[in-house]
Design a protein that fits this description.
heterodimer; A: mainly alpha; Helix Hairpins; 4 helices; about 75% helix; B: mainly alpha; 2 domains; 12 helices; about 0% strand; globular
């Protein structure tokens, strides 16, 4: 169980940094946004992992499990709304990328900067 | 068994993420991102977060994939340039990874009920929900009632993002709903020539909408609520648009109706809050909405979840149509 917990955190760290790599290293704007979604998903995973209680169950009362051990509902609430907010902001980012493509004819970062310098 | 499954899913997650970043074909990257979302949703389910898993599956694997594909159709499908300064970026990222990995050893152990995160307000929510709110799903109770302010803010963030996309993508080209392609060949639109997707799509759409409504109104008792239902219903209409073409979807659910949905949802949420004030309580205090405080809570949660559902459905479909309409220029 200890190892599984550490493994969850390691996967979180690796996913976070894979997303971060795409954001800093890639020059394609859509790829940067994809990296941002990966980064975001890694944070979601961290929150949900921390909310888990060993032997717990989903925090929903049902007949007979009123005294059961429940996992923490609070991180779940935060992440549930964050997912929907996340897709909306990603859509906004994609909208900006589409407009950049129309104005500059490219979504590669260095080509955009080149056109700006001229 | 769960242990093995967890290890397996987490490892698959990392492999998929690496593949997403490595491929230079953006179409492949987006498809893999959909798979990534589905895998992480399964993971959330294993970690007891049924509501989150439902949302992630509908939003991540469904809607986000379609939006990315819409953006790709308007930009380009390939990354044209190789990554510059790759080794420098890798060095920075690897050293940052090592720091984060080092930090994980100080974290409370996994599943420990004594961990700080389980000590403060969370037990109070679990304890108070049955008497104060009396809905079985504690996630819904916290989302809609205890932390109603947070959710109000988030609904407005979603709303604002929808307006932002409209501003960006309907600029110069007039209103999305007013444009129709000039009576071109019917078979060009959607997947009308492909029998199997068409039949399956048509069969599925009503059931997805029905399931969305169930998730909306059963959210107090099981996993569900406005956010999930909004995403599911939007996904159903997007599927319909993919199969039958965008025009027919706009006939079924006109663009102005979508705008009305998006505005009325946010308004409904705000008005329920104000109703509490006028009936003598605090903003977003539902206890005063009915004679019996618990009945008032039920009514309040039902109304604001409906508001959330309307706004999320409206915004996601407006964003989809904004991208799809841009396609024709």
């Amino acid at each position: 169980m200890e190892l599984l917990g550490l493994y969850h955190y390691w996967v979180f760290a690796v996913l976070l940094m894979i997303g971060f790599y795409a954001v800093v290293a890639k020059v394609n704007l859509v790829k940067k946004l994809i990296g941002l979604s990966l980064f975001q998903s890694a944070v979601f995973l961290l929150y949900i992992t921390m909310g888990k209680v060993t032997g717990g169950t989903a925090p929903i009362f049902q007949d007979g499990n009123v005294d059961a051990l429940f996992s923490n509902p609070l991180p779940q609430v935060l992440i549930l709304t964050a997912i929907v907010v996340g897709i909306s902001t990603t859509a906004l980012g994609l909208g900006i990328v589409v407009r950049i493509k129309e104005e500059y004819g490219s979504i590669e970062e260095h080509e955009i900067q080149e056109r700006d310098r001229r | 068994m769960t242990l093995v499954f967890s290890f397996f899913l987490l490892t698959l997650l990392v492999i998929t993420a690496v593949a997403v970043v490595r491929t230079r074909n953006l179409f492949v990257a987006v498809m893999l991102l959909g798979i990534f979302s589905l895998l992480i949703a399964a993971n959330f389910l294993l970690l007891d977060a049924a509501d989150v898993a439902l949302t992630e599956a509908a939003v991540g694997a469904g809607i986000s994939t379609v939006l990315f594909l819409g953006a790709l159709a308007l930009t380009s499908e390939r990354e044209r340039t190789a990554t510059p300064h790759r080794w420098l970026s890798l060095a920075v990222v690897v050293s940052a990874t090592l720091v984060v990995l080092y930090a994980t050893f100080d974290k409370p152990s996994f599943g420990d009920p004594e961990a700080p995160v389980h000590q403060h307000v969370a037990p109070w929510y679990l304890e108070k929900t049955p008497e104060a709110i009396d809905v079985p799903n504690v996630v819904t109770a916290v989302l809609a009632s205890f932390r109603g302010y947070d959710t109000l803010g988030e609904v407005f963030v979603v709303f604002t993002a929808g307006i932002g996309v409209l501003f960006l993508l309907s600029a110069q080209h007039g209103h999305a709903a007013q444009r129709r392609p000039d009576a071109k060949d019917e078979s060009d639109i959607g997947l009308r020539d492909d029998l199997i997707p068409r039949v399956v799509g048509r069969l599925l759409v009503p059931f997805i909408v029905l399931f969305g409504l169930y998730v909306q109104f059963h959210g107090d008792y099981g996993p569900g609520g406005g956010f999930q239902a909004g995403a599911l219903i939007a996904a159903a209409f997007i599927l319909f648009a993919l199969v039958e073409g965008e025009e027919r979807t706009l006939e079924a659910l006109p663009f102005n109706t979508l705008l009305a949905l998006m505005v009325s949802g946010a308004l409904l949420y705000g008005l329920v809050g104000l109703a509490g004030v006028f009936l003598g309580g605090n903003f977003l205090d539902y206890s005063v909405l009915a004679e019996d405080p618990v009945a008032g809570q039920h009514l309040g949660i039902l109304l604001i979840e409906a508001g959330v559902g309307l706004t999320v459905t409206g915004v996601l479909l407006v964003i989809f149509h904004a991208f799809a309409a841009r396609d024709r220029f």
